[in-house]
Amino acid sequence: MQKWIMSGLFFAACAFAVILMFTLPGKSEVAEENKPTMPEVVLDAASAEATVKANCISCHGDQLQGGAGPSLQQEGASHDAPQIYSIVTKGRGQMPSFKDRLAPEEIANVALWLAEKK
User: Fold this and answer.
1) Each residue of 50-69: pLDDT tens digit?
2) Which H or E run includes 12?
């Protein structure tokens, strides 16, 4: 009887291991999620400014001077566009992720716009 129980447990453990092998993300998927790739866009300053006014001023201030969030007036001095894109896409600290609120192209346009602020 004990052989049957141990065999059953072994079979269940093997089946569970096989299921995990096919459902867990691979290294490349995890790497892509951790470092999103910024799409190629041409800077449209008016559109970027409108996106920032619609989504960012509640925390970063109407002049990007800071408030609940840090000042973004000289963001380009500390981060380049791909870094800003990653922060806005994934979120960081108290800042939420915007990947579900904005299109990747909108985030990239804002990142380019903020990267010019030095």
Assistant:
1) 999 999 999 999 999 999 99
2) helix 2-23
d(CA 11, CA 19): 12
Residues 58/104, Cβ–Cβ less than 8 Å: no
Q: Alpha-carbon distance 12 to 18, whole Å?
A: 10
Count CA atoms closer than 13 A to 5's CA, side-chain side.
2
| 3-state secondary structure (DSSP) of residue 110 | helix
Burial of 85 (0-12, 13-18, 19+ CB in 10 A): buried
**Residue range 35-50, pLDDT digits in tens:** 788 999 999 999 999 9
**Local structure of residue 15 (DSSP, 8 states):** H
The architecture that CATH gives domain 33-115 is Orthogonal Bundle (1.10)
Assess contact for 87 and 95: CB atoms under 8 A. yes
